[in-house]
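re: ur question from earlier - yeah i can do the single chain one, its not a big deal. heres the input i used so u can compare w yours
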Amino acid sequence: MFAVTLLVIARPPDAMGKSWRQIKPMRSTSHDVARLFKGCEEVETRCQFTLEDQEVMIVFSGSNIGALECKLVPKRTVLAIIIKFSRPRSIKTFHLKNRKPKIFDPSSPPKQGYKTYYYEPEGFMINTYKGEVIGLVYVASQKDIHLCPEYYDDPRAFVDVGLVP
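and the output i got, formated as tokens:
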């Protein structure tokens, strides 16, 4: 059991956003999350925890996700996974060759050294500060965005708060 847990904790992130540790936005539920992370068993709209050098927040659909509700998405479906690293990582770790992301500056004021690479088809964002990866965001893939378009309307909303390396 310890070896399996160590494997789940130590393995590198799924580089292209298909899933994070077997959890996939718009496909996984809070029950799937609770099976992997016991502290998430009785959460309604979000689960936050620390995993080694990562702060993780998983957001679930429900009536408390801001001013909107995803009517086409069952309650307690994973909407987003937001990961912040306590130590920056090399972007080379993420094997992103031959990928064409949308690139934007999530900082306000701009030009502070932050850059986000958004791989929209996969629903994956890489947040960087001065060329080092400081976090990841997993959202719905392009084929699933139509289920809750208002929630995914502005990808900057997932990365423009709390970007301090």
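Residues 1-17, 161-165 have pLDDT under 50 and may be disordered. not sure if urs matches, ping me
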